Amino acid sequence: xxxxxxxxxxxxxxxxxxxxxxxxxxxxxxxxxxxxxxxxxxxxxxxxxxxxxxxxxxxxxxxxxxxxxxxxxxxxxxxxxxxxxxxxxxxxxxxxxxxxxxxxxxxxxxxxxxxxxxxxxxxxxxxxxxxxxxxxxxxxxxxxxxxxxxxxxxxxxxxxxxxxxxxxxxxxxxxxxxxxxxxxxxxxxxxxxxxxxxxxxxxxxxxxxxxxxxxxxxxxxxxxxxxxxxxxxxxxxxxxxxxxxxxxxxxxxxxxxxxxxxxxxxxxxxxxxxxxxxxxxxxxxxxxxxxxxxxxxxxx
Length: 300
Ligand code: GH3
Ligand code: MG
Ligand code: MG
Ligand code: MG
Fold this sequence. Notes:
It is a single chain. The protein is α/β, with parallel strands linked by helices. It contains ten helices and ten strands. It has a five-stranded parallel sheet, sandwiched between helices. Strands 7-8-6-9-10 form a five-stranded mixed sheet, with helices on both faces. The chain is elongated and about 75 Å long.
């Protein structure tokens, strides 16, 4: 398998021999990371986002239970699968570890074949979970976040803006004369054009929290947390330019000989008693205005 596709396993054990034996065992099939104590485990988990952690329970600085608790408390590491590997071999130790949220519990001395089989099993589960998450959150055509994901993120960002008091901007983008585009060039070409616009929108996002999603049909929505009207409008204007700059021929458009988009945006400055739906309505009203004013423009 290509090394960049190899799944990552973090082996956390205070005993150097254990680390080495487990590392050697896993090395041929996985990218192996090592940690010799609890603090290092947390640091490497956050930095390298391993797919699975083989976690020793008894470590001097911080035991495995505490490490697991802290992993779960940090959103960045909360979903990493953990297998406890421990000399504590009473049934209640095992039951306790599983109750804490470990995917599995392996007792020492371990059997190499069994360790490999269990690691493979849990990495398979991780792969399947990723696939499900993708199916649930990503639009198949454009590969942008889908409407379901947007609704979820929008709700969270709205709350975050309310707490922080920082503005939240939202824009709706709609392709101009897209019906004519399909009529003239065919639906498959329309799909390709939509994908190009989506890719351009995705690339225009500047911060990790910025989100471009497919709102429906040939409409995209852009969510820009901690961004006021001035900055949001500038970003969106660049995006409008960038789409026209793709120079996708559109001979049937009355707007321009190339594919263009209209964008309507609105910004919320927390403090007013507005509701999330009102910001979308305001952006939609601006989009209507951009269309009325001749298309291929931004209205805010
Ligand atoms: P305008 O927005 O400038 O007012 O005109 P329009 O022709 O783009 O009108 P509208 O936005 O109402 O039309 C949307 C068109 O987009 C109709 C539909 O066939 C097309 N469309 C929506 N989703 C897709 C898609 O996934 N693929 C393709 N090829 N076409 C799509
Ligand atoms: Mg130990
Ligand atoms: Mg539309
Ligand atoms: Mg349109």
